[in-house]
Write a structure and sequence with these properties.
alpha/beta; Nucleotidyltransferase, domain 5; Rossmann fold; eight-stranded mixed sheet; 39 helices; globular
């Protein structure tokens, strides 16, 4: 159930309903203050016998801001009656609109709808005020209130349409403040719909309009909204900076809830940066300073989630007890619905399985109440989420039938409102439930629907909070893996049928694509599913594609041989933990030149698991090149280092080796040898860039000189000349075949931590992508090989090779040659010289050229470079021809 809790935490991080609460208060105050300046000055004391409706409105505003909503509603009802009696339709409409806001806070949705409808009806049908500017302004404000109501009830598209109508009115009457407020509202709806980039553009325009205006609550709100969207779209540094600006404005205005809401947002950004202590401090400050129960609940829920994640159980239990009473006092709203779900999920994580069984009734009651509240609100999306989570709870305590019934109800509701991001969860949950009941075919059918729903969501899933890169492992990746597990489960003594094998291979290919798009947070890959088999069958008759798949209790291996209709299937019964421990040890030992014996011992095990089962087929079909589509931790080690104890040979000695993020992304075309031209660049001097110190690469000069001697056409940018601008100018002016960068770099599972060092900046992977694709389409397609000769994978990052794959598919090159760890640069110069020498042979593929260069390194007459540390670091990703 952690997947749901984490998803909900992301949802909370977006602060849709936090901003809703504060903005309603701000809007309410803005409307009333504007109108009061036109009509009457406000009174400061409450007199139950007040008869002046303007005084009633002012006192209602004060009560509203104090969250005494019932009392506020009573006064506003009296004001409505007074205005109706005096025939003041304009003020009556205004007051009805504010009454609707108050009913929304009380969760009295039908009354809120009625008050809003009456307000708009008066404004749209009363002839005497149709031409009034005041009428137009109040009409726009009434539309703002109606939009709030639609968003609170889960109707974001309707809210967006209404707010666009109000924006048109504000624009027509020249109300820049109202127009800005309406744009901020629109950005909220766009976020709720998953359109984060559009929301960011809208908010950027709004903050620019407010830049030279005096500080105001609207300005603080706009900046906070922009900071939140920047976090969601992955720009964490800018998010923190903008939120600090918002905080400064709110503090200057001395508005506690505005300060608290911004502190809450700062906590979310700190959490996205994995600054747990900083996040906890922001949340604690927000809870302490806020006078709003809504903001307090959110801040405390975030604290509770962090405490549970960090196993601070005693503090978590104390905080939970405080939260229970606060949530119980919240009026029925989407806020209270999701707060109950969040609390329920946290309670599931607090104790052991046995404790969960003892306490599940209490947790079930929280979820049942959330479901009932959502139903009363008419919010089918929230109801579907609550019911599905309740089904998930019953799944955990193995009440299969109850779990299945609730999950099916949740799925129907989610599909009714086209909530695909929720639907896939319940399709997946149904698949698990059916699997646990032994209904494998039905389970596969539900998993298949979940995968298809995920694929339809690819444009929505990729623009989420940066933490989604880690939640991807919990909430998306398992759907694919568990389906593959089901497809490859043996049925008695029967072999797995070819249909299942092909489907399993395609699912793994889809997972590779989804993971890369999640890395970039953009649906950016031009995949060609129809070419998966064609790449092997038509491009190279001596190459085989290998898909190793790590499952909890075994290693599955799929082998595609050229011009073979069937997929070969092998299984090694080893647990995931045993495989991953061995791979991690190899990864560590490879970086130590003196641990060759340990590398051989462990890599021999992996050889026996992965290669031995298929050796006979590889020899039978005279395979010369192995193309691996690697899975999980297997990407952390070079396949070339796998060691055959029987023949005392590394895999590299038998085969040329290439890696492919996905066969759907390859362009199987041979290198144009006659037109081979290179742009080379590098750094030989020590550099300190963006706070990081990089050691000198003393043999870069030698490396680049040797490359020049092997190629007929090349241009070099060394040290001060190696800048982003110069690199861009060269690529735009000349159609290079090869771009060779001899410089420090790092591959990481985090896009912001994947970079290449230039003289004066870290060239991030997104910048590299834009740079290499900045030329016209013909020139960018000419870059066939990108070489990164001094890079390394991030220490402690088990998915760091994802950054290498990301560069490979986005750099505008058909192939990339890179290092998994930084190697002695003298041996690098030697290897690269030999690699380019071998490329001069038109009968040698890039993969074979690399293999020969690596073996040549072993045979150096004056150096002991046969140890894997020196030669195994180099990997070829992409087109191997």
């Amino acid at each position: 159930m952690s997947r749901v809790r984490r998803w909900l935490k992301q949802w909370l991080k977006k602060q849709h309903y936090a901003l809703l609460m504060l903005f309603i208060v701000a809007f309410f105050a803005t409307v009333l203050l504007t109108l009061n300046s036109q009509y009457l000055a406000a009174e400061n004391s409450l007199d139950q016998n007040l008869i002046n409706p303007q005084e009633l409105i002012e006192q209602g505003r004060n009560l509203y801001e104090a969250e005494r909503f019932s009392e506020a509603a009573t006064l506003l009802q009296r004001a409505v009656a007074n205005f109706e009696a005096t025939g003041d339709k304009l003020k009556q409409a205004m007051t009805l609109s504010n009454l609707s806001l108050t009913y929304q806070q009380l969760g009295e949705w039908e009354r809120a709808e009625q008050a809003s409808a009456q307000s708009l009806n008066l404004l749209q049908t009363e002839q005497s005020i149709n031409s009034s500017n005041a009428r137009s302004q109040i009409l726009a404000q009434a539309l703002d209130v109606k939009g709030r109501l639609q968003l609170a009830r889960g109707k974001a598209e309707a809210a967006l349409t209404i707010w666009r109508q109000s924006a048109d009115i504000y624009s027509r009457i020249g109300d820049r403040v109202g127009l800005t407020r309406s744009r901020i509202n629109q950005a909220q709806a766009l976020q709720t719909l998953g359109l984060y980039r559009q929301a960011q553009n809208t908010l950027t325009e709004s903050t620019q309009l407010l830049q030279n205006q005096p500080d105001s609550l609207l300005k603080a709100t706009a900046l906070r909204s922009l900071g939140n969207v920047l976090r969601v779209t992955g720009n964490l540094e800018a998010s923190g900076q903008v939120l600090q600006q918002s905080l400064a404005v709110a503090k200057g205005l001395q508005i506690p809830n505005a300060i608290a809401d911004t502190l809450l947002s700062l906590g979310n950004t700190a959490n996205a940066k994995r600054d747990t202590q900083g996040a906890l401090q922001f949340y604690q400050q927000a809870a302490n300073i806020s006078t709003s129960q809504t903001i307090q609940v959110q801040a405390l829920l975030h604290q509770l989630n962090l405490l549970v994640e960090n196993k601070q159980q005693a503090d978590a239990i104390t905080l939970w007890q405080r939260l229970q009473s606060l949530i119980a006092n919240l009026p029925p709203s989407r806020t209270s619905v999701y707060a109950r779900i969040n609390l329920a999920q946290t309670l599931m994580k607090l104790g052991s399985t046995e404790e969960l069984a003892d306490n599940y009734r209490e947790i079930a009651q929280l979820l049942a109440t959330a479901s009932q509240e959502a139903k009363s609100l008419g919010d089918k999306r929230a109801e579907a989420y609550a019911l599905g989570n309740l089904g998930g709870l019953y799944e955990k305590v193995e009440q299969w039938q109850d779990a299945q019934n609730l999950t099916q109800q949740a799925l129907v509701l989610a599909q009714e409102v086209n909530a695909a991001d929720i639907s896939y969860r319940w399709q997946w949950q149904l698949g698990r439930l059916l699997k646990n009941q032994g209904k494998i075919q039905q389970a596969i059918a539900n998993y298949d629907q979940a995968v298809k729903t995920l694929q339809s969501l690819r444009y929505d899933l990729v623009a989420l909070d940066p933490n989604v890169q880690f939640n991807f492992r919990d909430e998306v990746e398992p759907v694919y893996r568990e389906m593959v597990d089901l497809l490859l489960q043996p049925n008695g003594t029967e072999e797995i049928n070819q249909e299942n094998l092909v489907q399993a291979r395609n699912i793994i290919e889809s997972l590779q694509l989804a993971e890369l798009e999640n890395f970039f947070r953009a649906a950016c890959l031009d995949a060609k599913p129809e070419q998966i088999d064609r790449v092997v069958d038509r491009s190279d008759q001596t190459a085989a594609a290998i898909y190793p798949i790590i499952l909890p209790n075994r290693l599955e291996i799929l082998l595609k041989l050229p011009n073979q209709g069937k997929i070969h299937h092998y299984v090694t019964k080893k647990s995931q933990s045993e495989i991953e421990i061995a791979l991690e040890e190899i990864r560590q030992y490879l970086r130590e030149p003196d641990r060759t014996d340990d590398v051989n011992r462990l890599s021999q095990q992996v050889y026996s698991w992965l290669i031995e089962p298929m050796e006979a087929e590889l020899e039978k079909f005279q395979i010369q090149t192995l193309v691996f589509v690697l899975d999980g931790s297997l990407r952390n080690i070079p396949m070339s280092v796998l060691y055959d104890e029987g023949t005392k040979k590394y895999l590299l000695e038998k085969y040329a080796i290439a890696l492919a993020p996905s066969l759907q992304l390859l362009q199987p075309k041979s290198l144009q040898r006659k037109k081979l031209s290179a742009l080379t660049a590098g750094l030989s001097e020590k550099r300190v860039v963006e706070g990081q110190e990089f050691s000198p690469l003393e043999n870069v000069n030698l490396e680049l000189q040797r490359i020049q001697s092997e190629l007929s056409s090349s241009e070099t940018l060394l040290n001060q000349k190696f800048t982003k601008l110069n690199l861009e100018n060269q690529i735009n002016s000349t159609p290079y075949t090869v771009v060779h960068l001899a410089t420090h770099g790092k591959f990481s599972s985090q896009i912001e931590e994947t970079y290449i060092l230039t003289w004066n900046q870290l060239l991030k992977v997104k910048d590299l992508d834009n740079l290499l694709r900045n030329a016209d389409s013909k020139q960018s397609s000419d870059i066939e090989l990108l070489v990164l000769s001094a890079c390394e994978t991030a220490a402690g990052d088990k998915r760091a090779a994802l950054g290498l794959a990301g560069i490979a598919v986005r750099a505008g090159a058909r192939s990339i040659l890179a290092t998994l760890w930084s190697v002695d640069d003298r041996s690098t110069a030697e290897l690269m010289s030999e690699f380019y020498h071998q490329l001069g042979n038109t009968n040698v593929t890039k993969a074979e050229a690399l293999r020969r260069a690596q073996i040549a390194l072993w045979n150096h007459p004056n150096e002991d470079w046969k140890r894997p540390y020196f030669w195994a670091s180099y990997v070829l990703v992409g087109n191997w021809l």
